[in-house]
Automatic annotation (TrEMBL), chain A:
One GO CC annotation: plasma membrane
Tagged with keyword Ion transport: yes
PROSITE patterns recorded: ABC_TRANSPORTER_1, ABC_TRANSPORTER_2
Protein name per Swiss-Prot or TrEMBL: ABC transporter ATP-binding protein
Ranges for domain ABC transporter: 4-240
InterPro entries with a match to the protein in the record: AAA+_ATPase (IPR003593), ABC_transporter-like_ATP-bd (IPR003439), ABC_transporter-like_CS (IPR017871), P-loop_NTPase (IPR027417), Siderophore_ABC-ATPase (IPR051535)
Keyword Iron-sulfur: no
Keyword terms, alphabetized: ATP-binding, Cell membrane, Ion transport, Iron, Iron transport, Membrane, Nucleotide-binding, Transport
Main localization category: membrane
Top-level taxon: Bacteria
Pfam families associated with the record: ABC_tran
Membrane topology of this protein: Peripheral membrane protein
Gene Ontology terms, MF aspect: ATP binding; ATP hydrolysis activity
TrEMBL record, chain B:
InterPro entries assigned: ABC_BtuC-like, ABC_transptr_permease_BtuC
Subcellular localization: Cell membrane
Keyword Transmembrane helix: yes
Protein name: Iron ABC transporter permease
Species assigned in the record: Brevibacillus invocatus
GO molecular-function terms, A-Z: transmembrane transporter activity
Amino acid sequence: MARLYTNDLSIGYGEQLIVKELSIKIPDKKITTIIGSNGCGKSTLLKAITRIIAPQSGTVILDGENISKENTKLLAKKMAILPQTPESASGLTVGELVSYGRFPYQNGFGRLTKRDYEAIDWALEVTGTIDYKYRPVDALSGGQRQRVWIAMAVAQETDIIFLDEPTTYLDMAHQLEVLELLQRLNTEQGRTVVMVLHDLNQAARFADYIIALKDGEIVKAGNCEEVIHYDVLKKVFHIDAEIGRDPRTNKPMCVTYNLIKGE
Amino acid sequence: MTKAHQRPTRFVYQLIAAVLMFLAMFAVAMLIGAAETTAKDVWLALTSRASGDKITLIREIRLPREIAAIFVGAALAIAGAIMQGMTRNPLADPGLLGLTAGANAALALTLALIPAADYYSIMLACFAGAAVGAFMVFGIGAMKKGGFSPLRIVLAGVAVSTLLYAIAEGIGLAFKISKDVSMWTAGGMIGTTWAQLQVVIPVIVIGTLIALFFARQLTILSLSEEVAVGLGQKTTQIKIILFIVIILLTGASVALVGNMTFIGLMIPHMVRALVGTDYRFILPMSAIVGASFMLFADTLGRIINAPYETPVSAIVTMLGLPFFLLIVRKGGKAFS
């Protein structure tokens, strides 16, 4: 039984629904990736699951509780969110930014306890950002900065981490660096990772479970063998894809593709 | 963890330095004035019950005026800092975003309808007016997608402010109270009395204390709305509280001295350059620097063209406008 799932979740503004009666289960301690074309509702879905926006109807259930009725601070101890391109935290050092990950555990004026400092250092350690601890966030490269934001989510010590396109604006090496970090958080610490990704091959390579959306509805949800499939990609992206195998990981991959003309 | 502790330590030194600067500024403001007074007069006026013409003058005219400068400077600087953090808009300022204009219009309306209104009612009207002004500006912003961009909001602020000032003037003309209205709103601390201060200061103190209590929440909110929600902040609740604080501080300031733009814009930017982006440091520092700045502006207004007074709002605007342009040019990154 998954700890986190949605029931007939509809999200939108007024008459226009972006996500329609979606019921999904997020497998525990696995990496789940949401894919789909631009405007298909992937980010919207992620925001609704993480209570950033309220759904029009339907529910998101975590540990048997409807999250819209749950104490938000309690939720912040269970799930962390890394939004798409967080604004740069000008003037903050890496250590200071990561320390905000301890916010759900604090009250009043937010004095950090010994336990908090340990969690912060540990998060910096795990994400390989401990060396930058005293540097301003602004002075870092895009990849480093993204790892620092992930460190903040790690310091939150949640079982579940959500990320909205964590690799956008990063070069190939840094993209891989971030994804491998998330993979380590999953395998070594058993954290559930849920992310929106644009790159199909990265999704296939790193995800245990892929949810493919089109127009706010699920086309296919399953492992990469089931989702990175000619018929699914045709439906989701309207492409004619050539599916091969990654020679190193043996995962399915989209080798090349064409747009489907006409119709 | 050594350096993690360094910032608070450094902040303590900065705070001490700021307080010393503030005290020096206060001394200068108290010593300089139209009437020749000596340091001894000022000292006696402040510390003893001694009487005498000059001592009475200092105690009843100069002191309330400088106290008004201190509290208004602090209140507007804090209000500006909160607005900038909350909206993540580097150009936010109670004067630029329609709050002071709203309070101003409400003040005119109150003077017109209830000529005998006591000071307390006038201040309440200013709160309501500031809130209406803010709602109008953000309402215009909300009408369009992307309408909350810093410059757009400032444009909406200009439009709404112009309208509200026109309304205030219209009321003044229609009810033949233009002189009364402009006496309030010319932006001066001239004629501040102890009775007024007694009404306004508690409001500013309470507003400041609430602001300081929520400073950490404000820092989280200033990072990004989504980050704040993710960290378990009740963002709507926090924003309502902070909005009320802004209204209290701005309304009280307008009730005391009338319009004063740019303080709320300028001071937090200067302070951020010193103490960083943590509002637990920004807010108290803004209060002290804002108070010192107002003392400075008021003193300057008294000596620049003595024996005539230059309105302090004119001085503040002269200093603030270049600052505004600099921030616009640097895309909000100036000094921070």
